[in-house]
Amino acid sequence: MHRVLTILLSLFLSLSVQAQTEKADSAETALPVDVSAYYVEVTPGSTLASVFGHAAIRMSCPSAGLDYCFTIKTPEINDEFFDILFGHLRVGLVPEQTSQFRADYLQQGRGITEYRLALTLDEARQLWQTLDGQVARGLYWDMDYVNNGCTQVIFEGLYDLMRQRPALKVDDVIRETLPMHTRREAVFSVLSPASWLGFFLHSCYAGPIDEEVSARRLVILPSDGAKVLENARLVAARQTLATPSVTPLSEDHAAFTPLMASVLFLLLCLLPYRKIDYVTLPLQTVLLLLFCTLTFFSRSSGFGWNWLILALFPLTAPVGILYMLFHMGSIFSLPQLVVAVAFMIRTIYWISWKKRLFTKY
């Protein structure tokens, strides 16, 4: 009797395992098999917030009627200049209908290019699951073009897939594609200090942007992200959906350049007239307060110690200018150096006049 019960129990367990296996296989078969992933690159726009362009991941499953672009969003920016430099904005990944995503950027006159990724079905499903997990976390990033820009957020999920391919040396591919060491070098390729916007932003952003970082943290521009994916052989096809119809803010160069303005300012500071101090001293004070505020009090990420403080502060101006000379081209531009020298000249004039005044009395 005991032997009969044992046989019956074994038969029941085997049938139960077989049923569960068939159920799992059936569920696996029921999953969609037409899942596709795309890296979406949007060209730069005509506003400060869009100066570097935009990146997103499009996930499509026609059989299920799903087509979304996963893109980072932030609450409405009230004042673009103030919020980016001094604000503390939070961003997060959100799924947006692809049709709506395209319409928004087409209305802005910006170009859109899609790169269909060469992923296996399992990899595409895993990427979608990862993106859904990021969406569930809500607004958990600080608005930061240096550390948490759209490209870095998008590449978080892509790096997970790349690591699963032993033959793909991600860091080596990035180093070959982007032969640079700091994120300022990456920004230089889009935003030249020869333009007014470049002169201003390169003067404000300091510290973190000049640090030497790992290869993966150098992928901060949407266009660079596309190059990395292509060189990693992760792009199966490329399609340009729209070409830009507006001039990007980074390419809107004025005839009166920062270099011309800085040279004229230097010539003005060379004139031995005390009334010129009524212009230069308040301007020097305002710039010092701006850089000190960004360095010590700004709630926006991406700002650190700004060496221009040494060049503008009267007592440390020679040290600051010497530091600028040793970092010309990598951190500082010629217009910045000329302005710092001009302020130092006016400081020398001011000290000389004060000395004469005290000597007289």
Q: Order of helices and strands, N to C?
A: HEEEHEHEHEHHHHHEHHHHH
Distance between the termini: 124 Å
Estimate the global geometry from the Cα principal axes.
elongated
The proportion of residues forming helix, as a percent range, comes to 40-55%
How many helical elements?
14
Give average pLDDT, whole number.
83
Describe the structure.
By secondary structure, the chain is an alpha+beta fold. Helix content is 51%, strand content 13%. It contains 14 helices and 7 strands. A hairpin with a 4-residue loop joins β2 and β3 (66-73). The longest helix has 29 residues, at 2-30. The radius of gyration is 28 Å and the shape is elongated. The termini are far apart. Residues 1-17 and 19-28 have low confidence and may be disordered.
Give short descriptive properties of this protein.
disordered N terminus; elongated; alpha+beta; 14 helices; about 350 residues
